[in-house]
Amino acid sequence: MSIRLIAGLGNPGPEYEQTRHNAGFWLVDQLTSDLQRDKNLNALVGKTRIGGEDVWLVQPQTYMNRSGQSVGGLARFYKIAPEEILVVHDELDIAPGLAKLKKGGSSGGHNGLKDITAALGTQDYWRLRIGIGHPRTLNLRQEVADFVLHRPRKEEQPLIDEAIARSLEIIPLLVAGKFDTATMQLHTVK
């Protein structure tokens, strides 16, 4: 098994472009600038080559809580198994500057993951979790919904960008099916 589809999660529209909830979009933007609108999937879709392999990229253009419509539709159309899907998303329970890779598990309250799990009929897909921190651990008096829909603070953005850069380094390993190596590399902070 290897990764054949990378789904970056976020919310569409310029008002959300720089918000923490769009960390998944930010990573996919680094992989290609050639995404095309697919009206049937309600998504921006493209294909790129990584390590000599074709990989589908998708940015759902629904709001976060309907991400499964695009991810599930693309996976069904191209016969991509759930374990060949990498969903890239913001993660409240990880500090800015860190990223974690895991397969399966609960949605942890993330509405995008809940909808993708429902669309795929399983939790058994890969997640690349980009740390954005939690308002409580960052000593902010902000509700979670408000927090994720705002820009990172000036000191947080470079940390999030660094986590995305380290995540991009392991994408070729995931496409090659080297999940253990990719996990160890990503989780070993230099």
TrEMBL record:
Coarse class of the protein's main subcellular location: cytoplasm
Keywords: Cytoplasm, Hydrolase, RNA-binding, tRNA-binding
Alphabetical GO biological process terms: protein quality control for misfolded or incompletely synthesized proteins; rescue of stalled ribosome
Record's catalysed reaction(s): an N-acyl-L-alpha-aminoacyl-tRNA + H2O = an N-acyl-L-amino acid + a tRNA + H(+)
Localisation per UniProt entry: Cytoplasm
Tagged with keyword Signal: no
Catalytic residue positions: 21 (proton acceptor)
Residues the record lists as binding tRNA: 16, 63, 65, 111
InterPro entries reported in the protein's UniProt record: Pept_tRNA_hydro (IPR001328), Pept_tRNA_hydro_CS (IPR018171), Pept_tRNA_hydro_sf (IPR036416)
Residues with site note (Discriminates between blocked and unblocked aminoacyl-tRNA): 11
EC code(s) of this entry: 3.1.1.29
Coiled-coil region: none
Record site feature (Stabilizes the basic form of H active site to accept a proton), residues: 90
GO molecular function: peptidyl-tRNA hydrolase activity; tRNA binding
GO cellular component, one term: cytoplasm
Protein task: Catalyzes the release of premature peptidyl moieties from peptidyl-tRNA molecules trapped in stalled 50S ribosomal subunits, and thus maintains levels of free tRNAs and 50S ribosomes.
SUBUNIT field: Monomer.
Protein name: Peptidyl-tRNA hydrolase
